[in-house]
Amino acid sequence: MATAVVVGSGPNGLAAAVCLARRGVRVHVVEAAPVLGGGARSAQVTLPGLVHDECSAFHPAGAASPLFRALRLERYGLRWRWPEIEMTHPLDSGTAGVLWRDIHRTAEAMGVDGEAWLRAFERLGRDFDDLTADVFRPILHLPAHPVTLAAFAARAVAPATWVARAWRRPETRALFAGAAAHAYGSLRAPLSAAVGVLLIAAGHAYGWPVAEGGSQAIVRALAALLADLGGTVETGVRIESLDELDGFDVVLLDVSPRAALRIAGRRLPPRVAHAYRRFRYGPAAYKVDFAVAGGVPWRDEYSRRAGTVHLGGTLEEVAAAEEAVARGRMPARPFVLVGQQYLADPSRSAGDLHPVWAYAHVPHGHPGNVTELIVDQIERFAPGFRMRVAARHIRTVARISAANPNYVGGDIATGAMTGLQTLFRPRIALDPYATGVPGVFLCSAATPPGPGVHGMCGYNAALAALRHLRRGGRTWRQAARSRAYCQKTRSTRAPTARE
Questions:
Q1: What InterPro entries does the record point to (predicted)?
Q2: 146-156 vs 194-206: helix axis angle to the nearest 10?
Q3: Is 446 helix (H, G, I), strand (E, B) or coil?
Q4: Could you give the domains of the chain?
Q5: Is the pTM of this model over 0.90?
Q6: pLDDT by residue (tens digit) across 291-311?
């Protein structure tokens, strides 16, 4: 029986482990932290009884993931829960852009922008499964659904600010800008519309649900399935070198390219090592969890019923703030995401005390305290919020990167989603999961299709590992021994007559 070890237990690492185990591979997972989960952990960090997601919170990609649906994780306790309204983007006027899962209800509320919204997203939402069949894979492949992919690409390749010109109302433009800002980069750059188009299409196809009981429920379901398949898990073990992983046929690394450089060391081919060193990390997150009595008193009534609320004002304001952050400057009014998961999942609350999740986009490695800027942005659209806060828990950029080494400099996307790196992560290659070290593969969010709790990075990397095993490929240790033997043979052979 072939054997595999997976380093890291985020959703991608566990997804890779499950996919290998389902194909008969004996799998062992090692995790440096005391608990599994990576970016999908949950904990009571403010007051007893209030469940907060530590990083990832809303899961349009998780509900849409072809892997998660195929694994039938509901058998292991995973339950998706939806808010009444998926997302809002309030403005100072007291109005807001509003996203319902029902695209026709969304378009109707947009008035003059409704028809343009339908033209942009109706087909993509209807054919979202066809779209994910292509965009959840490496960019270099023969498209399975070229017409749907072309419809997506027509808008995705453009700057987000250009795409937003299709709409006339400031509420509609702001609604799109907030979704596009999930890419953590300039909204004026090419390809900056891609994440926004994908998230809104996913919202209309699957909504923006939460996992009942917290995002940790996704990890628990994957870990339970892995156990049923015979896989094993070990926590509190930090891997520093491939030398600690001898004896496995394949190694999968749910780590950042920087960590892969450290673990693989000089075994990496120079071209791959060069690409990993050049891999760019993007802006950071600064997170504050609040315990709020009675919920957030939004001025806009729709935001009181929305799972996700994006704060930043108009399209122009959001674009300016994201531009500043991308250039390393801290804006006075940063883009802030607020999560009200308890609206979909009341089990996270304790009586009239509710967990409210919030983070701001800040420059990479930002050392400052941004807590009051976040509170100010919430207060701007919800006067009286400060008076309702019963407790808070702050995770600075330094704390975020220390808690999860994949988040270099606080970059929770595990790599900048800008330029060619949006398409080719972590390097330009037919097989972006291969590290160039025989039998060693990268399976983190630094690989296609990128960030999000969907498991598809792990799934794709597992397929690459299985192809390697079917070909009878060597392990990294066998390759090292072979090179050492060849070098020894060359150094001890008898000289030829010519020599």
A1: FAD/NAD-bd_sf (IPR036188)
A2: 130
A3: coil
A4: 3-40+71-78+212-279+416-485 (3.50.50.60), 80-210+282-403 (3.90.660)
A5: yes
A6: 999 999 999 999 999 999 999
